Records
---
Amino acid sequence: MQQDTIVGIASGMGGGIGIIRISGENAFLVAGEIFRTRKFVGIDDIKNRNFEETESKKKWDTGFFLKKESHTIHYGYIIEDNGSILDEVIVLLMRGPKSYTCEDVVEIDSHGGAYLIQKILQLLIHHGARLAEPGEFTKRAFLNGRIDLSQAEAVMKMISSKNEFALESAVNQLEGRVSGFIENIRQEILHHMGYIEAALDDPEHYDLGNFSEGLYEILQEKISSLKELLNCFENGRMKSEGINTVIVGKPNVGKSSLMNLLLDTERAIVTNIAGTTRDILEETVQIGNLNLNLIDTAGIHETGDIVESLGVEKAKEYLNQADFILFVVDVSKPLEVADDKIISLLSDKKGVVLLNKSDLSICIEEEEIKNKLEWECISFSNKTGDGLKKLEEYITSSFLKGDISFNDQIYLTSIRHREAVENAVKSLEQVLLTIDNGMPEDLYIIDMMDAYQKLGLINGETASEDLVNKIFSDFCMGK
């Protein structure tokens, strides 16, 4: 499959410039089939928007690009098979291995019309290229050894990043900081496995006398380093992918109005009729360098309405999965049994209480809430916007404390990476247990090898073909 010459649209639709990328051993030839220089076409043909090769004209050399140096740019025209001039373009040549895929790569910069780009794409396919699968360009970069699997995943993270933290973490991963950190641990595990094997084969020259004690300390240190990565995973994930923020409260306390206020748009229907929101509404809003994945839920209370009760159950489900909760309380009315039931669901979670409708006559004091729920309380009004700035400052300070910030610390944001590290830690802890039990050194190798292989899933060294294919199938076309 890698011998195929592939082509794909590498730019987003709708821009002023469209980029078509070709990669493979025949990339220069395929591009040469449809390209002509300005000098070759001639000024009259350009004016007529038509080009026809005749006996009186010199025949075009489709190997034109094969004679050109790498990393050069060429100006000219795309010619259809019927001789029509399709577009005025520039073409960038990159010979392998000094290219994104380590293969010969051609990038055609055309005008950005969607129909025009598709016509150029079809021309290239007609002349021998194959349409690239999702992520196939990056997959070839991985298979050709230019990047590892972790760095390949970082490419997609960069494309999909929605805030500064997500972009920064993707850049760090692309630079190889995550895989480099993991690979250092793998190599140390491999070194000690090699020593054990050598000592078992040649006990006269390799001493295992105090080996177990030294290995125990080293593995404890490695386990500690890996656990530090795991401990900061959730913060890293939330900052990178967004904080799943659920808005809860009784019916008609202002949950949907709060969502509209945070989004600065009328996203949710708002009425003075209790139970207006029956389904779940989800939107994303950016606050500083954080993204909140807002979830507006149905008011939690006892109801005989079947549809509304389904919404209440759904709200409770989202509540259990939330990273952060905005508990909206109507301070213009006394606390009710429904409020207490909601509070009982929040005791072990992270969030803030919004004392809404503070512009009206207040019936609930902050202490009354804090006696039942030890959360920060913010005086708030959806109508006037009072308290909004304080809420934004509280969220920012809660999630950007410096435990994970824009620094050189290595951290994980991928669930796949987290699972690999968790399994490696379990295997290394099993080695410690084996040492504690006074078992022979050759038994250490079983779990050390398992840890080595589990960590190898991160950079792809021990990843199966199915796993690799699954990762790249999630990529966008043309990348």
Note: The first strand starts at residue 6 and ends at 9.
---
Amino acid sequence: METKPIQVSFSGQDLRRLIIPLVIEQLLAITVGLLDSVMVSQVGEAAISAVSLVDTVNVLLVNAFSALATGGAVITGQYLGRREREKAGHSGEQLLLFMMEASLFIMALFYLGKGFVLNVVFGKVDASVAAYANTYYMIVEASTPFLAVYSAGAALFRVMGNSQISMWVSLAMNVINGAGNALLIFGFHMGVEGVAIPTLLSRLFAAAAMLWLLRRPGLPLQVEKLSLRHDRYIVKNILRFGVTNGLESSMFQLGKILLLSTVSVLGTASVAANAIGNTFATFQCVAGNALGLGIVTVVSQCVGAGDFDKARFYTKKLLKMTYICMDICILLVYLSMPLLLRLYNVSSEAELYARQIVWMHGFFGMLIWPLSFTLPQALRAAGDTKFTMVVSSVSMWTMRVGFGILLGRYLGFGVRGIWMAMFVDWLLRVSFFLPRFCGRRWETMGL
């Protein structure tokens, strides 16, 4: 006898309660990051260079941990959809244990490979920059396990549909970081230590807050204890869902870092325009990224309940919301661009390139960005992570990197050619993700 799927329903109010804090959290991270860079600039050019160099590696870690935790939390979301609270809590415990162990291993590798990172990856830099980088690196990398635990906790609260918790913890973490930077830099006149120590302390606070909050009674899932015993079945699925998601995010960031070296040979105006374009593009995609995280929560629970019709319904509904919200964000960026560009002291050539990049990114963002990046989040939430990883990675390295280098360096399109190749990358993704979602194969990839 065929069993009826468990009923999973998200009202409009439920979706707003989930999405709005996610948008605020995304905006908060971007804004605080900009404020941090302004405060770091007070230490001096060598300090700015050192922090930016080390942060190119740290951004890779932040995104990898976030993707790994989000992918691993899909298991918890599917258990919640089945109404199996004990298994959901157990999978949450296993995710936290896995993230702790993985982050300790990564931290050890980073310390053992410090010489390689500082001397080989960063290349030959001034002695003052190298000294600052070493100091910043030694302090900030100690926060790696705390960052991993925070990422896991935030992902678990999101799959519960409680994104307000991750928003408030993120707010507190960023306030501690920003206030600490201001106090140590302006009050105690410290160098890069004044930037690094608050980062370490803020991440320690965020990890401790998440572990405490996950123990509160009345949650859809509760992490009662942190057992050191591994559940092979859960760990296997964390590896299957989470690691593929983390690898995909890591390769995406590595591709971006590689393209920076290509941009650097195109001249100062191109480097400046690329940096400005990236900042503006981030604001254009704020709502899209937040809604993508929301889709993981909603679809994972629908898939866990066996209700694939609802999974499709909510994916389409959230895609429509993504298009509307992204259109608003892009139009706001367009309207504010003339004013914001005046804040950058760049040449007219760099300003022209930046303006063209932002207009192109916004145009294609309105057309295909949600289908390229929000839609595959539904596939990941259903457990179809291997397919999304393969498509995203191949498309990234062939179109965005390979075709981008061809257009930018060899066919004379410059920095604009690199961004054009990115839009071709988006189109290729859509050509695979849309038919996959319209088919049935992804419905067989869950637990």
Note: The mean pLDDT is 85.
